[in-house]
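Weekly sync notes, structure subgroup
Attendees: PM, AL, DS (notes)

Item 1: joint prediction request from the bench team. They want all two components modeled as one assembly rather than separately. Inputs as received:
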Amino acid sequence: MKFRCERDVLVEALGTAGRATAGRGGALPVLGGIRLSMTGDGLEVTGTDLDLTISVQATVAGGTDGVVIAPGRLITDIVRALEPGAVSLEADDEELRIASGRSHFAVRTHPTGDFPRLPTPSGDVVTLPVDGLAESLRQVTRAASSEDSRPILTGVLLSAEDDGLRLVATDSYRLAVRDLRGAGVLAEGQKVLVPSRALNELQRLLGSADGEVALRLGTHDVTFSIGPVTLISRLIEGEFPNYRALIPANYPNRLIVGRDALLDAVRRVKLLARDATTPVRIALRPTGIELTVITTDWGTATEDVDAKYEGAEMTVAFNPNYLIEGVEAINGDEVALDTLDALKPATLRPTEGDEYLYLLMPVRVS
Amino acid sequence: MAEPDRSVQQNGGPMRLVIATCTVDYAGRLSAHLPLAKRLLMVKADGSVSVHSDGQAYKPLNWMSIPCELRAGPDQWVVTNPKGETLTISIEVVHLDIEHEMGDEPGLRKDGVEAHLQELLAARPEAIAAGLKLVRREYPTDIGPVDLLCRDAEGRAVAIEIKRRGEIDGVEQLVRYLERLDLDGRLRPVRGVFVAQVIKPQAQVLAAARGIGCVEVDYDELRGLDTGRLTLF
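Output from the run, pasted for the record:
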């Protein structure tokens, strides 16, 4: 295998595919490798950890067909460190030689037969607008769990709704729901659970894309294609919690507050929080709200924020990070916080539109 | 001045505890002097001699490990070892002198929390990683038992070391177990996972460098206790 291309093109491809490789210390060292495959003038760069696979296509010059599996992190660091300009790569069964200007590297490679067989995209192709999907992922994936002990909660539920696609994620402390209206990508009643890690990578890829995303849903995996990049993720098998039953139909208390004013105030009083579990208390009053953080060893922070409140006066406390993430996810100048009482789930949502809601469990305080 | 004169050597006998006002002089690789004060002199069944002060659960002020010989006179004890080092204890007043048969030492046991963590995780290995199945608790190796031996979802062997607080020595302990377990063709290759309630950053770095996974677990949650955090479901 042999080819030549611009350093920046190769860095981009290696960096993107490398995000799917397994970290050091995995059971299969070859999963730390990146597969470079040349056919004609087409280079395909692929990384996988078996759960997530990312492939990038690039057009290169001076090609000789072939395949090589090289240590992903190492060759990415090497190519990134080279001077700008053309880079030549040539491989045989033993090593990959990388050359640019006066720099020459020879890197030992993995046997090509050790690399896992890559999943083949399956299912019918449907498309989604990049903007809407990227925004929905930004709002929802943050609520997914990062703890592998409950794998179902590490996924984002994609389910068919009457008027489009719904994305739902929860880590049992908060729940984010976003409707993407008009996106009829799933059959009626269909739902799948996609790992949030894969969707975070997709969101990253969408950040620099425009136009449409092609989606193919197979029996055990889902494929997203964005320009030259293909992302394939295994689906999570299992039953997602019945989230609909968690969302109260009506709330007696409603707070309307400026989004940025609330965010800034929470971030300030949070400086007194000793750890992520120190709650921020919100005293809800008709004249406005008072935020308080109390840490026994360090002291107290309070801040008043102008707001409109209708309902019973009370104090409700939240994990400040979860509150910040919920408010950040809402678009618009104002947010609405609906509450039942200090110990039941509260809902954050925009004051206009009903496409997004963020259900947040309070923290019990004395 | 009170007794005691129990002459030479205590090897194999009961533990002897003496509280005495004394000075202590050590001569060997260096010289050290403890001025006159009340101290606890401990002569263990194996013949080792140590001098303690009344402060902190810490190592002795001075000591002589076996092999050594104790010549205990009424006014002076002299402990010597084959290297020619000597510990001289000059006794002014003896306040207490007792002997007690200690019996066999069962060895260090894990504290209650650590042992309970092992028990809870043996019952729920999936709390460490999805798909883990327990093979055996206290799986023996020729340098001691590893806390849990499991198989992952792909059937690969996983050795798990459990601590209350995850520090570097725990990672090194697991590395040693992995070396021994990898010699067994039925298990090889064995992956290591270090589990603790809290794992120090240095231990996490070492574990990553050794290819060992780290998992922090919530003891209260494993026990099914209410942690004060309300959940949606």
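Discussion: The mean pLDDT of chain A is 93.
Action: AL to compare against the crosslinking data before next sync.
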